[in-house]
Amino acid sequence: MTATTAGAPGAAREGARAAGGRGAEPSAWYLAPALIFFVAFGIVPLVVAAVLSFTTWDGLTPPKFTGLDNWVDELSDPVTYNALWLTLKVIVLSWVLQTPLSLLIGVFTAGRQRYRAVLSALYFLPLVLSAAAIGIAFKALLDPNYGLGHAFGVKALVQDWLGNTDLVLYTVVLVIAWQFIPFHSLLYQAGARQIPPSLYEAASIDGAGRVQQFFSITIPQLKNTIIASTTLMVVGSLTYFDLVFILTQGGPGYATRLLPLDMYLTGFQASQLGSASVLAVLLVLIGLVLATIITRVSGFNRMTSQQEGA
Amino acid sequence: MAVTTSPTTTRTERPAEQPRPRARRRRDRPNVVGAVLGVVWLAIIVVPIYYVVLTSFSEQGEFYTRNPLVPPGDPTLGAYRQVVESGIARYFVNSVLVTAATVVVTVVVCLLAAYTIVRSSRRFVRTSYSLFLLGLAVPLQATIVPLFFMLGQLDLYDTLLAVILPSIAFAIPITVLVLVNFLRDIPRELFESMFVDGATNGQILLRLVLPLARPALGTVVIYDALQVWNGFLLPLVLTQSENIRVLPLALWNFQGQFSIDVPATLAAVVLSAIPVLVLYVVARRQLVSGLTAGVGR
Protein backbone atom coordinates (compact mmCIF):
# COMPACT_ATOMS: atom_id res chain seq x y z
CA MET A 1 0.00 0.00 0.00
CA THR A 2 2.51 2.61 -1.07
CA ALA A 3 3.06 5.40 -3.52
CA THR A 4 -0.39 5.75 -4.98
CA THR A 5 -0.79 9.47 -4.74
CA ALA A 6 1.72 10.71 -7.18
CA GLY A 7 4.55 12.89 -6.04
CA ALA A 8 3.04 13.71 -2.69
CA PRO A 9 5.45 12.08 -0.28
CA GLY A 10 8.36 13.72 -2.04
CA ALA A 11 6.67 17.08 -1.81
CA ALA A 12 6.03 16.52 1.87
CA ARG A 13 9.67 15.86 2.52
CA GLU A 14 10.76 18.91 0.64
CA GLY A 15 8.29 21.14 2.47
CA ALA A 16 9.20 19.74 5.82
CA ARG A 17 12.86 20.43 5.20
CA ALA A 18 12.11 23.96 4.12
CA ALA A 19 10.04 24.69 7.19
CA GLY A 20 12.09 22.81 9.74
CA GLY A 21 15.29 23.52 11.51
CA ARG A 22 14.29 26.53 13.56
CA GLY A 23 12.81 26.32 17.04
CA ALA A 24 9.20 27.34 16.53
CA GLU A 25 8.01 23.89 15.45
CA PRO A 26 4.52 23.11 16.68
CA SER A 27 3.99 20.04 18.78
CA ALA A 28 2.87 16.93 16.91
CA TRP A 29 -0.25 17.02 19.08
CA TYR A 30 -1.71 19.56 16.68
CA LEU A 31 -1.87 16.75 14.19
CA ALA A 32 -3.58 14.34 16.55
CA PRO A 33 -7.29 15.24 16.09
CA ALA A 34 -7.18 14.89 12.31
CA LEU A 35 -5.09 11.77 12.51
CA ILE A 36 -7.40 10.15 15.07
CA PHE A 37 -10.52 10.83 13.02
CA PHE A 38 -8.91 9.63 9.85
CA VAL A 39 -7.41 6.48 11.32
CA ALA A 40 -10.53 5.58 13.31
CA PHE A 41 -13.03 5.97 10.48
CA GLY A 42 -10.84 5.74 7.38
CA ILE A 43 -8.02 3.28 8.04
CA VAL A 44 -9.39 1.03 10.77
CA PRO A 45 -12.43 0.12 8.61
CA LEU A 46 -10.07 -1.26 5.98
CA VAL A 47 -8.53 -3.56 8.59
CA VAL A 48 -11.96 -4.47 9.94
CA ALA A 49 -13.10 -5.29 6.41
CA ALA A 50 -10.19 -7.67 6.03
CA VAL A 51 -11.06 -9.33 9.36
CA LEU A 52 -14.77 -9.55 8.58
CA SER A 53 -13.98 -11.20 5.27
CA PHE A 54 -13.02 -14.29 7.26
CA THR A 55 -16.28 -14.40 9.16
CA THR A 56 -19.88 -15.26 8.46
CA TRP A 57 -22.11 -12.43 9.55
CA ASP A 58 -25.75 -11.69 8.87
CA GLY A 59 -25.74 -8.25 10.50
CA LEU A 60 -27.87 -9.33 13.47
CA THR A 61 -26.11 -12.10 15.33
CA PRO A 62 -22.39 -11.72 16.14
CA PRO A 63 -19.96 -12.62 13.32
CA LYS A 64 -18.62 -16.21 13.37
CA PHE A 65 -15.09 -16.97 12.22
CA THR A 66 -15.26 -19.26 9.21
CA GLY A 67 -11.80 -18.95 7.71
CA LEU A 68 -11.50 -18.79 3.96
CA ASP A 69 -15.10 -19.82 3.23
CA ASN A 70 -16.22 -16.42 1.97
CA TRP A 71 -13.13 -16.03 -0.16
CA VAL A 72 -13.67 -19.44 -1.74
CA ASP A 73 -17.37 -18.68 -2.27
CA GLU A 74 -16.88 -15.25 -3.78
CA LEU A 75 -13.94 -16.23 -5.96
CA SER A 76 -15.86 -19.17 -7.40
CA ASP A 77 -19.07 -17.20 -7.86
CA PRO A 78 -19.81 -16.22 -11.47
CA VAL A 79 -21.64 -13.14 -10.13
CA THR A 80 -18.31 -11.80 -8.86
CA TYR A 81 -16.66 -12.26 -12.25
CA ASN A 82 -19.64 -10.73 -13.96
CA ALA A 83 -19.29 -7.72 -11.64
CA LEU A 84 -15.58 -7.45 -12.38
CA TRP A 85 -16.18 -7.74 -16.12
CA LEU A 86 -18.94 -5.11 -16.05
CA THR A 87 -16.75 -2.79 -13.98
CA LEU A 88 -13.93 -3.16 -16.50
CA LYS A 89 -16.35 -2.50 -19.35
CA VAL A 90 -17.67 0.63 -17.66
CA ILE A 91 -14.14 1.88 -17.02
CA VAL A 92 -13.15 1.46 -20.68
CA LEU A 93 -16.41 2.82 -22.11
CA SER A 94 -16.35 5.78 -19.72
CA TRP A 95 -12.80 6.64 -20.65
CA VAL A 96 -13.45 6.40 -24.37
CA LEU A 97 -16.57 8.55 -24.10
CA GLN A 98 -15.52 11.06 -21.46
CA THR A 99 -11.90 11.83 -22.27
CA PRO A 100 -12.26 13.24 -25.81
CA LEU A 101 -15.41 15.16 -24.91
CA SER A 102 -13.93 16.58 -21.71
CA LEU A 103 -10.78 17.55 -23.55
CA LEU A 104 -12.71 19.40 -26.25
CA ILE A 105 -15.06 21.09 -23.79
CA GLY A 106 -12.20 22.01 -21.49
CA VAL A 107 -10.18 23.60 -24.27
CA PHE A 108 -13.28 25.32 -25.62
CA THR A 109 -14.20 26.84 -22.26
CA ALA A 110 -10.59 27.87 -21.64
CA GLY A 111 -11.09 30.51 -24.34
CA ARG A 112 -11.62 33.99 -22.95
CA GLN A 113 -14.53 34.90 -25.24
CA ARG A 114 -17.55 36.20 -23.38
CA TYR A 115 -20.01 33.71 -24.83
CA ARG A 116 -17.78 30.87 -23.73
CA ALA A 117 -17.74 32.16 -20.16
CA VAL A 118 -21.54 32.17 -20.18
CA LEU A 119 -21.68 28.68 -21.68
CA SER A 120 -19.22 27.24 -19.20
CA ALA A 121 -21.26 28.56 -16.27
CA LEU A 122 -24.05 26.32 -17.56
CA TYR A 123 -21.77 23.44 -18.56
CA PHE A 124 -20.45 22.99 -15.06
CA LEU A 125 -23.86 22.96 -13.42
CA PRO A 126 -24.03 19.16 -12.96
CA LEU A 127 -20.98 19.48 -10.67
CA VAL A 128 -23.16 20.56 -7.77
CA LEU A 129 -26.06 18.16 -8.24
CA SER A 130 -26.21 15.06 -6.08
CA ALA A 131 -25.99 11.64 -7.68
CA ALA A 132 -29.37 10.92 -6.10
CA ALA A 133 -30.96 13.92 -7.84
CA ILE A 134 -29.32 13.09 -11.17
CA GLY A 135 -30.30 9.45 -10.92
CA ILE A 136 -33.92 10.18 -10.16
CA ALA A 137 -34.14 12.85 -12.85
CA PHE A 138 -32.74 10.52 -15.51
CA LYS A 139 -34.92 7.67 -14.39
CA ALA A 140 -37.95 9.82 -15.18
CA LEU A 141 -36.39 11.25 -18.31
CA LEU A 142 -35.59 7.82 -19.73
CA ASP A 143 -38.95 6.31 -18.97
CA PRO A 144 -40.60 4.70 -22.02
CA ASN A 145 -44.05 6.02 -21.05
CA TYR A 146 -43.50 9.66 -20.25
CA GLY A 147 -39.78 10.24 -20.86
CA LEU A 148 -38.02 12.76 -22.99
CA GLY A 149 -38.06 10.43 -25.99
CA HIS A 150 -41.65 11.47 -26.71
CA ALA A 151 -40.63 15.07 -27.25
CA PHE A 152 -38.97 14.50 -30.59
CA GLY A 153 -41.43 12.20 -32.31
CA VAL A 154 -38.67 9.72 -33.13
CA LYS A 155 -39.68 6.12 -32.43
CA ALA A 156 -36.10 5.01 -31.81
CA LEU A 157 -35.84 7.36 -28.86
CA VAL A 158 -38.77 5.76 -27.07
CA GLN A 159 -37.08 2.74 -25.57
CA ASP A 160 -37.01 1.01 -22.24
CA TRP A 161 -33.51 2.38 -21.77
CA LEU A 162 -33.11 1.06 -18.25
CA GLY A 163 -35.14 -2.12 -18.62
CA ASN A 164 -33.55 -3.56 -21.73
CA THR A 165 -30.63 -5.85 -20.89
CA ASP A 166 -28.81 -4.99 -24.10
CA LEU A 167 -29.10 -1.24 -23.67
CA VAL A 168 -28.93 -0.66 -19.96
CA LEU A 169 -25.16 -0.70 -19.49
CA TYR A 170 -24.68 1.86 -22.27
CA THR A 171 -27.45 4.00 -20.83
CA VAL A 172 -25.74 3.93 -17.46
CA VAL A 173 -22.40 4.88 -19.03
CA LEU A 174 -24.09 7.84 -20.73
CA VAL A 175 -25.67 9.10 -17.52
CA ILE A 176 -22.36 8.68 -15.69
CA ALA A 177 -20.76 10.74 -18.46
CA TRP A 178 -23.40 13.46 -18.02
CA GLN A 179 -22.51 13.64 -14.35
CA PHE A 180 -18.73 13.48 -14.65
CA ILE A 181 -17.75 15.18 -17.92
CA PRO A 182 -18.18 18.62 -16.30
CA PHE A 183 -15.60 17.72 -13.67
CA HIS A 184 -13.06 16.46 -16.17
CA SER A 185 -13.73 19.42 -18.46
CA LEU A 186 -12.86 21.62 -15.52
CA LEU A 187 -9.51 19.88 -15.16
CA TYR A 188 -8.79 20.38 -18.85
CA GLN A 189 -9.93 23.98 -18.71
CA ALA A 190 -7.48 24.68 -15.90
CA GLY A 191 -4.74 22.85 -17.80
CA ALA A 192 -5.41 24.59 -21.11
CA ARG A 193 -5.28 28.01 -19.47
CA GLN A 194 -1.73 27.29 -18.37
CA ILE A 195 -0.46 26.69 -21.90
CA PRO A 196 1.69 29.69 -22.83
CA PRO A 197 -0.12 31.71 -25.53
CA SER A 198 3.21 32.31 -27.20
CA LEU A 199 3.17 28.71 -28.44
CA TYR A 200 -0.06 29.37 -30.36
CA GLU A 201 1.13 32.71 -31.64
CA ALA A 202 4.30 31.16 -32.95
CA ALA A 203 2.37 28.31 -34.54
CA SER A 204 -0.11 30.54 -36.31
CA ILE A 205 2.70 32.69 -37.64
CA ASP A 206 4.09 29.49 -39.08
CA GLY A 207 0.70 28.90 -40.68
CA ALA A 208 -0.56 26.08 -38.50
CA GLY A 209 -4.36 25.82 -38.56
CA ARG A 210 -6.61 25.34 -35.60
CA VAL A 211 -6.79 21.57 -35.91
CA GLN A 212 -3.06 21.26 -36.33
CA GLN A 213 -2.48 23.47 -33.31
CA PHE A 214 -4.85 21.34 -31.27
CA PHE A 215 -2.93 18.17 -32.04
CA SER A 216 0.59 19.52 -31.96
CA ILE A 217 0.37 22.02 -29.11
CA THR A 218 -2.73 21.52 -27.00
CA ILE A 219 -2.65 17.75 -26.59
CA PRO A 220 1.09 17.41 -25.87
CA GLN A 221 0.89 20.32 -23.44
CA LEU A 222 -2.03 18.73 -21.63
CA LYS A 223 -0.27 15.40 -21.18
CA ASN A 224 -0.16 15.74 -17.40
CA THR A 225 -3.79 16.73 -17.21
CA ILE A 226 -4.76 13.76 -19.37
CA ILE A 227 -2.92 11.43 -17.01
CA ALA A 228 -4.44 13.02 -13.92
CA SER A 229 -7.93 12.95 -15.38
CA THR A 230 -7.50 9.34 -16.50
CA THR A 231 -6.33 8.27 -13.07
CA LEU A 232 -9.28 9.93 -11.39
CA MET A 233 -11.66 8.48 -13.94
CA VAL A 234 -10.38 4.93 -13.70
CA VAL A 235 -10.10 4.84 -9.94
CA GLY A 236 -13.38 6.75 -9.66
CA SER A 237 -15.11 4.14 -11.82
CA LEU A 238 -14.72 1.74 -8.92
CA THR A 239 -16.91 3.98 -6.83
CA TYR A 240 -19.85 4.51 -9.18
CA PHE A 241 -22.46 3.45 -6.73
CA ASP A 242 -25.13 6.03 -5.99
CA LEU A 243 -26.07 6.75 -9.56
CA VAL A 244 -26.25 3.14 -10.72
CA PHE A 245 -28.02 2.08 -7.54
CA ILE A 246 -30.77 4.61 -8.12
CA LEU A 247 -31.03 4.05 -11.86
CA THR A 248 -31.11 0.27 -11.94
CA GLN A 249 -30.29 -1.32 -8.56
CA GLY A 250 -27.93 -3.51 -10.52
CA GLY A 251 -30.59 -4.86 -12.85
CA PRO A 252 -32.31 -5.93 -14.91
CA GLY A 253 -31.00 -9.28 -13.73
CA TYR A 254 -27.28 -8.79 -13.25
CA ALA A 255 -26.85 -6.45 -16.22
CA THR A 256 -25.49 -3.46 -14.26
CA ARG A 257 -24.34 -5.14 -11.07
CA LEU A 258 -20.95 -3.43 -10.90
CA LEU A 259 -18.47 -4.35 -8.18
CA PRO A 260 -19.50 -1.74 -5.58
CA LEU A 261 -23.13 -2.55 -6.23
CA ASP A 262 -22.44 -6.26 -5.94
CA MET A 263 -20.83 -5.53 -2.58
CA TYR A 264 -23.79 -3.50 -1.35
CA LEU A 265 -26.40 -5.98 -2.51
CA THR A 266 -24.49 -8.97 -1.15
CA GLY A 267 -24.04 -7.24 2.18
CA PHE A 268 -27.24 -5.36 2.80
CA GLN A 269 -29.81 -7.14 0.70
CA ALA A 270 -28.65 -10.75 0.95
CA SER A 271 -27.32 -10.11 4.49
CA GLN A 272 -24.00 -11.80 3.75
CA LEU A 273 -21.76 -9.17 5.23
CA GLY A 274 -18.76 -11.47 5.40
CA SER A 275 -18.89 -12.07 1.67
CA ALA A 276 -19.47 -8.37 1.09
CA SER A 277 -16.25 -7.71 3.02
CA VAL A 278 -14.38 -9.92 0.56
CA LEU A 279 -15.67 -7.71 -2.23
CA ALA A 280 -14.71 -4.60 -0.24
CA VAL A 281 -11.14 -5.85 0.09
CA LEU A 282 -11.07 -6.62 -3.64
CA LEU A 283 -12.33 -3.10 -4.35
CA VAL A 284 -9.55 -1.50 -2.32
CA LEU A 285 -6.87 -3.73 -3.81
CA ILE A 286 -8.02 -3.10 -7.38
CA GLY A 287 -8.13 0.64 -6.72
CA LEU A 288 -4.61 0.73 -5.36
CA VAL A 289 -3.24 -1.52 -8.11
CA LEU A 290 -4.86 0.57 -10.86
CA ALA A 291 -3.62 3.83 -9.35
CA THR A 292 -0.11 2.41 -9.05
CA ILE A 293 -0.10 1.06 -12.60
CA ILE A 294 -1.24 4.34 -14.08
CA THR A 295 1.31 6.39 -12.17
CA ARG A 296 4.09 3.93 -13.06
CA VAL A 297 3.24 3.51 -16.73
CA SER A 298 2.84 7.21 -17.28
CA GLY A 299 5.86 8.10 -15.18
CA PHE A 300 3.74 10.73 -13.50
CA ASN A 301 6.22 11.21 -10.67
CA ARG A 302 8.99 12.07 -13.06
CA MET A 303 6.91 14.43 -15.11
CA THR A 304 5.43 16.71 -12.51
CA SER A 305 7.97 19.41 -13.22
CA GLN A 306 7.50 19.28 -16.97
CA GLN A 307 4.88 21.99 -17.12
CA GLU A 308 7.01 24.67 -15.54
CA GLY A 309 9.76 23.85 -18.03
CA ALA A 310 7.53 24.23 -21.07
CA MET B 1 6.20 20.05 -29.26
CA ALA B 2 6.22 19.36 -32.96
CA VAL B 3 5.61 22.94 -33.94
CA THR B 4 8.70 24.66 -35.19
CA THR B 5 8.90 28.10 -33.75
CA SER B 6 10.95 30.54 -35.72
CA PRO B 7 11.99 33.35 -33.40
CA THR B 8 13.65 35.25 -36.22
CA THR B 9 10.39 35.96 -38.03
CA THR B 10 8.49 36.91 -34.88
CA ARG B 11 10.98 39.55 -33.96
CA THR B 12 11.55 41.05 -37.41
CA GLU B 13 10.24 44.54 -37.97
CA ARG B 14 7.38 44.55 -40.41
CA PRO B 15 6.09 47.38 -42.53
CA ALA B 16 3.37 49.21 -40.62
CA GLU B 17 0.65 48.54 -43.22
CA GLN B 18 0.37 44.83 -42.59
CA PRO B 19 1.04 44.08 -38.94
CA ARG B 20 1.42 40.37 -38.12
CA PRO B 21 -0.91 39.06 -40.79
CA ARG B 22 -1.30 35.43 -39.67
CA ALA B 23 -1.56 36.03 -35.97
CA ARG B 24 -4.40 38.37 -36.71
CA ARG B 25 -6.15 35.97 -38.97
CA ARG B 26 -6.45 33.54 -36.10
CA ARG B 27 -8.18 36.12 -33.95
CA ASP B 28 -10.52 37.37 -36.65
CA ARG B 29 -11.88 34.11 -37.97
CA PRO B 30 -14.54 32.94 -35.51
CA ASN B 31 -14.42 29.28 -34.56
CA VAL B 32 -17.74 28.23 -36.10
CA VAL B 33 -17.32 24.50 -35.58
CA GLY B 34 -16.41 25.09 -31.94
CA ALA B 35 -19.39 27.34 -31.36
CA VAL B 36 -21.83 24.89 -32.96
CA LEU B 37 -20.52 21.97 -30.90
CA GLY B 38 -20.61 24.22 -27.86
CA VAL B 39 -24.30 24.84 -28.37
CA VAL B 40 -24.96 21.11 -28.90
CA TRP B 41 -23.30 20.33 -25.60
CA LEU B 42 -25.27 23.11 -23.97
CA ALA B 43 -28.46 21.36 -25.08
CA ILE B 44 -27.24 18.06 -23.65
CA ILE B 45 -26.71 19.71 -20.28
CA VAL B 46 -29.72 22.00 -20.20
CA VAL B 47 -32.50 19.88 -21.72
CA PRO B 48 -32.57 17.31 -18.88
CA ILE B 49 -32.64 20.10 -16.31
CA TYR B 50 -35.38 21.88 -18.24
CA TYR B 51 -37.37 18.64 -18.43
CA VAL B 52 -37.13 18.15 -14.67
CA VAL B 53 -38.20 21.70 -13.83
CA LEU B 54 -41.02 21.67 -16.34
CA THR B 55 -42.39 18.33 -15.22
CA SER B 56 -42.32 19.42 -11.59
CA PHE B 57 -44.85 22.13 -12.48
CA SER B 58 -47.20 19.77 -14.31
CA GLU B 59 -50.46 18.23 -13.25
CA GLN B 60 -50.16 14.58 -12.24
CA GLY B 61 -52.58 13.36 -14.88
CA GLU B 62 -51.73 15.78 -17.62
CA PHE B 63 -48.04 15.17 -18.10
CA TYR B 64 -48.47 11.68 -19.53
CA THR B 65 -50.18 13.07 -22.56
CA ARG B 66 -48.37 16.24 -23.49
CA ASN B 67 -45.02 16.73 -25.16
CA PRO B 68 -42.52 16.72 -22.27
CA LEU B 69 -40.71 19.77 -23.61
CA VAL B 70 -43.75 22.00 -24.06
CA PRO B 71 -44.62 24.00 -20.94
CA PRO B 72 -47.83 22.81 -19.26
CA GLY B 73 -50.98 24.73 -20.13
CA ASP B 74 -51.71 25.68 -16.55
CA PRO B 75 -48.59 25.27 -14.42
CA THR B 76 -49.32 24.13 -10.89
CA LEU B 77 -47.47 24.16 -7.60
CA GLY B 78 -49.42 21.09 -6.51
CA ALA B 79 -46.37 18.81 -6.65
CA TYR B 80 -44.38 21.22 -4.48
CA ARG B 81 -47.18 21.46 -1.95
CA GLN B 82 -47.26 17.69 -1.75
CA VAL B 83 -43.50 17.47 -1.17
CA VAL B 84 -43.54 20.18 1.49
CA GLU B 85 -46.46 18.51 3.25
CA SER B 86 -44.67 15.19 3.31
CA GLY B 87 -42.04 16.73 5.57
CA ILE B 88 -39.10 17.73 3.41
CA ALA B 89 -38.28 20.50 5.93
CA ARG B 90 -37.27 17.87 8.47
CA TYR B 91 -34.86 16.21 6.00
CA PHE B 92 -33.52 19.60 5.06
CA VAL B 93 -32.69 20.36 8.70
CA ASN B 94 -31.01 16.95 9.07
CA SER B 95 -28.87 17.63 6.02
CA VAL B 96 -27.91 21.05 7.37
CA LEU B 97 -26.94 19.54 10.73
CA VAL B 98 -24.84 16.77 9.21
CA THR B 99 -23.15 19.15 6.77
CA ALA B 100 -22.44 21.89 9.30
CA ALA B 101 -21.05 19.51 11.95
CA THR B 102 -18.86 17.71 9.44
CA VAL B 103 -17.49 20.86 7.86
CA VAL B 104 -16.74 22.66 11.14
CA VAL B 105 -14.90 19.73 12.67
CA THR B 106 -13.08 18.86 9.45
CA VAL B 107 -11.82 22.35 8.81
CA VAL B 108 -10.67 22.92 12.40
CA VAL B 109 -8.76 19.65 12.72
CA CYS B 110 -7.32 19.96 9.22
CA LEU B 111 -6.10 23.50 9.75
CA LEU B 112 -4.25 22.36 12.87
CA ALA B 113 -2.85 19.38 10.98
CA ALA B 114 -1.85 21.38 7.91
CA TYR B 115 -0.07 23.97 10.07
CA THR B 116 1.89 21.20 11.77
CA ILE B 117 2.74 19.52 8.47
CA VAL B 118 4.05 22.75 7.00
CA ARG B 119 6.03 23.80 10.06
CA SER B 120 7.35 20.52 11.37
CA SER B 121 10.07 18.24 10.05
CA ARG B 122 9.42 15.34 12.41
CA ARG B 123 9.33 11.93 10.80
CA PHE B 124 6.01 11.17 12.50
CA VAL B 125 4.45 14.23 10.90
CA ARG B 126 5.76 13.35 7.45
CA THR B 127 4.50 9.78 7.74
CA SER B 128 1.10 11.02 8.83
CA TYR B 129 0.90 13.30 5.82
CA SER B 130 1.67 10.40 3.49
CA LEU B 131 -1.08 8.45 5.21
CA PHE B 132 -3.58 11.25 4.63
CA LEU B 133 -2.64 11.36 0.96
CA LEU B 134 -3.03 7.62 0.67
CA GLY B 135 -6.62 8.20 1.75
CA LEU B 136 -7.25 9.98 -1.54
CA ALA B 137 -6.92 6.67 -3.37
CA VAL B 138 -9.13 4.55 -1.11
CA PRO B 139 -12.70 4.20 -2.35
CA LEU B 140 -15.17 5.23 0.34
CA GLN B 141 -17.52 2.52 -0.87
CA ALA B 142 -15.23 -0.19 0.42
CA THR B 143 -15.63 0.91 4.03
CA ILE B 144 -19.39 0.72 4.36
CA VAL B 145 -19.56 -2.86 5.61
CA PRO B 146 -16.92 -2.40 8.33
CA LEU B 147 -18.38 1.01 9.23
CA PHE B 148 -21.78 -0.62 9.62
CA PHE B 149 -20.16 -3.12 11.98
CA MET B 150 -18.09 -0.57 13.93
CA LEU B 151 -20.85 1.99 14.40
CA GLY B 152 -23.16 -0.82 15.49
CA GLN B 153 -20.62 -1.81 18.13
CA LEU B 154 -20.40 1.81 19.26
CA ASP B 155 -24.20 1.97 19.52
CA LEU B 156 -24.25 4.77 17.01
CA TYR B 157 -26.15 3.02 14.22
CA ASP B 158 -29.13 5.05 13.06
CA THR B 159 -27.92 8.37 14.50
CA LEU B 160 -26.76 11.49 12.71
CA LEU B 161 -23.37 10.97 14.33
CA ALA B 162 -23.04 7.70 12.39
CA VAL B 163 -23.04 9.76 9.19
CA ILE B 164 -20.98 12.65 10.55
CA LEU B 165 -17.98 10.69 11.89
CA PRO B 166 -17.07 8.83 8.67
CA SER B 167 -17.90 11.94 6.63
CA ILE B 168 -15.24 13.83 8.58
CA ALA B 169 -12.72 11.04 8.03
CA PHE B 170 -13.33 11.07 4.30
CA ALA B 171 -13.12 14.83 4.00
CA ILE B 172 -9.76 14.98 5.78
CA PRO B 173 -7.34 13.91 3.00
CA ILE B 174 -8.39 16.46 0.39
CA THR B 175 -8.85 19.21 2.99
CA VAL B 176 -5.37 18.66 4.42
CA LEU B 177 -3.91 18.59 0.91
CA VAL B 178 -5.50 21.91 -0.10
CA LEU B 179 -4.56 23.64 3.15
CA VAL B 180 -0.98 22.34 3.12
CA ASN B 181 -0.48 23.50 -0.46
CA PHE B 182 -1.76 26.91 0.51
CA LEU B 183 0.15 27.31 3.77
CA ARG B 184 3.41 26.37 2.04
CA ASP B 185 3.20 29.65 0.18
CA ILE B 186 3.26 31.70 3.37
CA PRO B 187 6.84 32.98 3.70
CA ARG B 188 8.72 31.24 6.48
CA GLU B 189 10.01 34.59 7.76
CA LEU B 190 6.52 35.55 8.87
CA PHE B 191 6.27 32.56 11.20
CA GLU B 192 9.76 33.10 12.48
CA SER B 193 9.42 36.78 13.19
CA MET B 194 6.25 36.15 15.18
CA PHE B 195 8.00 33.41 17.06
CA VAL B 196 10.92 35.69 17.83
CA ASP B 197 8.43 38.23 19.18
CA GLY B 198 7.36 35.58 21.66
CA ALA B 199 4.14 34.35 20.02
CA THR B 200 3.07 30.79 20.76
CA ASN B 201 1.97 28.42 18.02
CA GLY B 202 -1.63 28.99 19.02
CA GLN B 203 -1.19 32.74 18.59
CA ILE B 204 0.57 32.30 15.25
CA LEU B 205 -2.32 30.14 14.09
CA LEU B 206 -4.97 32.62 15.18
CA ARG B 207 -3.33 35.88 14.18
CA LEU B 208 -1.29 34.91 11.14
CA VAL B 209 -2.45 31.65 9.59
CA LEU B 210 -6.19 32.07 10.03
CA PRO B 211 -6.44 35.47 8.32
CA LEU B 212 -3.99 34.55 5.55
CA ALA B 213 -5.59 31.20 4.83
CA ARG B 214 -9.07 32.62 4.41
CA PRO B 215 -9.31 31.96 0.65
CA ALA B 216 -8.16 28.36 1.05
CA LEU B 217 -10.55 27.90 3.96
CA GLY B 218 -13.38 29.18 1.78
CA THR B 219 -12.47 26.64 -0.86
CA VAL B 220 -12.40 23.67 1.49
CA VAL B 221 -15.55 24.71 3.35
CA ILE B 222 -17.50 24.87 0.12
CA TYR B 223 -16.01 21.72 -1.32
CA ASP B 224 -16.50 19.63 1.82
CA ALA B 225 -20.00 20.97 2.34
CA LEU B 226 -21.00 20.00 -1.17
CA GLN B 227 -19.65 16.47 -0.79
CA VAL B 228 -21.45 15.90 2.49
CA TRP B 229 -24.67 17.57 1.36
CA ASN B 230 -24.83 15.28 -1.67
CA GLY B 231 -23.67 12.13 0.15
CA PHE B 232 -25.97 9.17 -0.32
CA LEU B 233 -24.21 5.94 0.53
CA LEU B 234 -23.32 6.62 4.18
CA PRO B 235 -26.85 7.69 5.18
CA LEU B 236 -28.28 4.79 3.16
CA VAL B 237 -26.26 2.23 5.06
CA LEU B 238 -25.89 3.85 8.47
CA THR B 239 -29.34 5.29 9.14
CA GLN B 240 -32.83 3.95 8.99
CA SER B 241 -35.30 6.10 10.93
CA GLU B 242 -37.39 8.66 9.14
CA ASN B 243 -36.68 11.42 11.64
CA ILE B 244 -32.96 11.45 10.90
CA ARG B 245 -33.23 11.04 7.14
CA VAL B 246 -31.10 13.40 5.04
CA LEU B 247 -32.14 14.95 1.73
CA PRO B 248 -30.53 12.61 -0.83
CA LEU B 249 -31.97 9.64 1.00
CA ALA B 250 -35.33 11.39 1.21
CA LEU B 251 -35.28 11.82 -2.57
CA TRP B 252 -34.77 8.11 -2.94
CA ASN B 253 -37.66 7.46 -0.55
CA PHE B 254 -39.93 9.96 -2.29
CA GLN B 255 -39.33 8.04 -5.45
CA GLY B 256 -40.66 4.90 -3.84
CA GLN B 257 -43.43 6.67 -2.00
CA PHE B 258 -44.75 8.74 -4.89
CA SER B 259 -43.76 6.07 -7.43
CA ILE B 260 -46.15 7.02 -10.21
CA ASP B 261 -46.42 10.66 -9.16
CA VAL B 262 -43.47 11.80 -11.21
CA PRO B 263 -44.10 15.57 -10.85
CA ALA B 264 -43.91 15.23 -7.06
CA THR B 265 -40.69 13.23 -7.23
CA LEU B 266 -39.12 15.78 -9.55
CA ALA B 267 -40.35 18.67 -7.42
CA ALA B 268 -38.44 17.07 -4.55
CA VAL B 269 -35.36 16.90 -6.79
CA VAL B 270 -35.69 20.60 -7.61
CA LEU B 271 -36.18 21.59 -3.97
CA SER B 272 -33.17 19.57 -2.85
CA ALA B 273 -31.01 21.20 -5.53
CA ILE B 274 -31.92 24.80 -4.72
CA PRO B 275 -29.32 25.27 -1.94
CA VAL B 276 -26.47 23.94 -4.08
CA LEU B 277 -27.59 25.99 -7.06
CA VAL B 278 -27.51 29.11 -4.90
CA LEU B 279 -24.04 28.08 -3.78
CA TYR B 280 -23.05 27.60 -7.40
CA VAL B 281 -24.18 31.07 -8.34
CA VAL B 282 -22.65 32.77 -5.31
CA ALA B 283 -19.37 30.91 -4.92
CA ARG B 284 -18.54 29.26 -8.20
CA ARG B 285 -14.91 30.31 -8.09
CA GLN B 286 -14.16 28.71 -4.71
CA LEU B 287 -16.10 25.64 -5.70
CA VAL B 288 -14.15 25.23 -8.90
CA SER B 289 -10.80 25.74 -7.21
CA GLY B 290 -11.75 23.17 -4.60
CA LEU B 291 -12.65 20.63 -7.25
CA THR B 292 -9.39 21.04 -9.12
CA ALA B 293 -7.28 21.36 -5.98
CA GLY B 294 -5.82 17.89 -5.92
CA VAL B 295 -4.86 17.92 -9.58
CA GLY B 296 -3.14 20.04 -12.17
CA ARG B 297 -0.18 21.02 -10.11
UniProtKB/TrEMBL annotation, chain A:
Keywords: Cell membrane, Membrane, Transmembrane, Transmembrane helix, Transport. GO terms for cellular component: plasma membrane. InterPro entries: ABC_transporter_permease (IPR051393), MetI-like (IPR000515), MetI-like_sf (IPR035906). GO terms for biological process: transmembrane transport. The keyword Zinc does not apply. Gene3D superfamilies: MetI-like. Belongs to the binding-protein-dependent transport system permease family. This is Raffinose/stachyose/melibiose transport system permease protein. The lineage of its organism: Bacteria, Bacillati, Actinomycetota, Actinomycetes, Propionibacteriales.
TrEMBL record, chain B:
It is found in: Cell membrane. It comes from Microlunatus flavus. Residues 1-10 have a biased composition (Low complexity). This is Raffinose/stachyose/melibiose transport system permease protein. It is a multi-pass membrane protein. GO terms for biological process: transmembrane transport. PROSITE patterns: ABC_TM1. Keywords: Cell membrane, Membrane, Transmembrane, Transmembrane helix, Transport. It comes from the Bacteria. CDD domains: TM_PBP2 (cd06261). One of its GO terms (cellular component) is plasma membrane. Residues 1-27 are annotated as: Disordered.
